[in-house]
Amino acid sequence: MIMINRGHLTLRVLLPLLLAAGCTTMGTGYGTTAVGTNPVRFDWKSSDGVDGTIYATLSDGSVYAGAYFQVTDTTTDDTLGPLWDGWGPRWGFGGWENWDTGPDFITHYTGRIVANLVDPEGKHIRCKFRLVQPSSGMMGGGLGDCQLPDGKTIEASFPRAS
User: Fold this and answer.
1) Which residue of 3, 34, 55, 81 sits 20 to 30 Å from the alpha carbon of 67, by its own alpha carbon?
2) Rounded to an integer, what distance in angstroms lies between the CA atom of residue 24 and that of residue 4?
3) Does the pTM exceed 0.85?
4) How many CB atoms lie within 10 A of CB 100?
5) What is the pLDDT of residue 15?
6) CA 82, 86, 91 angle in degrees (round to 5)?
7) What's the mean pLDDT when you consider all of the chain?
8) Which pLDDT belongs to residue 162?
9) CB within 8 A of 126, min separation 6: which ones?
């Protein structure tokens, strides 16, 4: 007969789950188009503080989702590969300079978040945010903008998460 101490079994099962959940951070940001209309809600989640998933819900109800990456001095070209999906290796719109990966990109964008979001129809939004406290990642808050498929921009703000 095998004896199982339920208290120890429960602890062994729940402790890793609690520790994993404790490492996940989440937050919300808000944005509007450049003329101050069409509100956008951003929801983000990260399990390592450096990269994660971000969702943008536009005023028309459409939802875009994708990965975001914090650019650090250890960022590699491989890490940033998903940024080019739907855009090509150069994004080529005003204000989105230096979007080829490599040392110049890493140097220019260190301390920033970059993201490429997609909707179910395959339309993309690209985003860049300057972090208020880069050592805190998205938890420290930030400001930035995103470009919609039609070329219009969203001005975004992420308050410090608690």
Assistant:
1) 34
2) 31
3) no
4) 11
5) 36
6) 85
7) 75
8) 72
9) 83, 87, 91, 96, 114, 115, 116, 117, 146, 147
